[in-house]
Write a structure and sequence with these properties.
three-stranded antiparallel β-sheet; 30% helix; transferase
Length: 329
């Protein structure tokens, strides 16, 4: 039996979050080259999609609201995905929460917002889906006065794309890409062992609520407790905007972790369950996401597990589960 190849770990910070990329070690020169590729990718994504950078492509697009505007291939891809998930989630995923986030006080990066009381914005908020995308000519027209925020999709998209690049373009047989707790993995942590990914407690982020084991796939967590700040007028706010009200959501779910094949899908559905709440969220996962599993924390502190096959080896490790929901066959 051949000895296991050690793992190489690279950490950085971009998109206002911690980035971690792990891969099966290559020759030192190749690993250094892969570090540069990962670093360049995540900073390029931030430069293109950040709503906090005035010179980003997203900021330029928002300033062009109302006009037909040429966009990059990457922007066209993300906006196309946003349209698809808007339909799939019955409108609960929307990229048009920019003005609502500003009205709630999230007008600067979270590191700045959490250190000071947020002030009220005079921006008007509309939940209407207001975009005409011309994919063939790589152009988009936002309805006049509307603005995009793509924070709900870009983190997962960027990590999944980086994983695909390492796996397909550079032949990395096993690896992990972690963008702020949204994780895509492939190949297992070794030939015999899966990757084991910790799920943080919503109340005590330094503590693990559960552990999920995956050889190939993704897991993403969303929580209304993760990014909270005090608003001078409205009190405690959080970053999960309900498109029906254009206010921070107030469902009976405070955290949802989704495990599945695609990190993009997992990231979006974790947010959608937090917004829809337990009953509707579970129903939609059952009917629209047959390959996904979910670990959900309710506002009462109960832990709900939606799993696919009870006969399979347990994927989720936790001290207790209050309610188990089986996937319909």
């Amino acid at each position: 039996m051949q000895p296991e190849v050690p793992l190489h770990v690279y950490r950085s910070r971009a998109m206002n979050t911690e980035i971690e990329v792990i891969w099966e070690s290559q020759a030192l020169r190749k690993s250094r080259a892969l570090e540069k590729i990962a670093d360049k990718w995540f900073h390029a994504v931030e430069q293109r999609f950040s709503r906090f950078m005035p010179d980003s492509e997203l900021s330029y697009l928002n300033r062009q609201s109302g006009s037909l505007t040429l966009i990059s291939g990457a922007m066209a891809e993300v906006l196309s995905l946003a349209e698809i998930f808007h339909i799939q989630t019955e409108g609960m995923f929307s990229p048009f929460v920019y003005d609502a986030l500003h009205a709630a006080g999230y007008s600067q990066s979270y590191d700045i917002v959490k250190q000071a009381d947020a002030v009220t914005s005079d921006s008007s908020c509309s939940g209407a889906y207001s975009m005409t995308l011309h994919s063939g000519m790589k152009a988009v027209q936002l309805q006049d006065g509307t603005h995009l925020d793509l924070g709900g999709i870009v983190k997962g998209w960027s990590a999944e794309k980086m994983a695909d690049k390492l796996r397909l373009a550079y032949g990395v047989r096993r690896g992990l890409v972690n963008a702020g707790g949204d994780v895509q993995v492939w190949g297992g942590s070794s030939a015999q062992e899966p990757w084991r990914i910790g799920i943080a407690s919503p109340w005590h982020p330094e503590e693990e609520l559960a552990m999920v084991s995956l050889r190939d796939g993704a897991v993403a967590t969303s929580s209304s407790w993760g990014r909270r700040w005090n608003h001078a007028k409205h009190g405690v706010q959080h970053h999960l905007i309900d498109p029906r009200t254009m206010r921070p959501g107030s469902s009976d779910v405070i955290q949802c972790s989704i495990a599945g094949d695609s990190l993009i899908s997992c990231e979006i559905w974790a947010k959608v369950v937090c917004l829809f709440g337990l009953e509707r969220g579970l129903a939609l996962l059952q009917t629209k996401c047959p390959r996904m599993e979910a670990l959900i924390v309710s506002e009462t502190g109960d832990l709900h597990l939606l799993r696919r096959h009870p006969q399979e080896k347990e994927r989720w490790e936790t001290e207790h589960i209050d309610f188990i929901h089986e996937k319909a066959n």
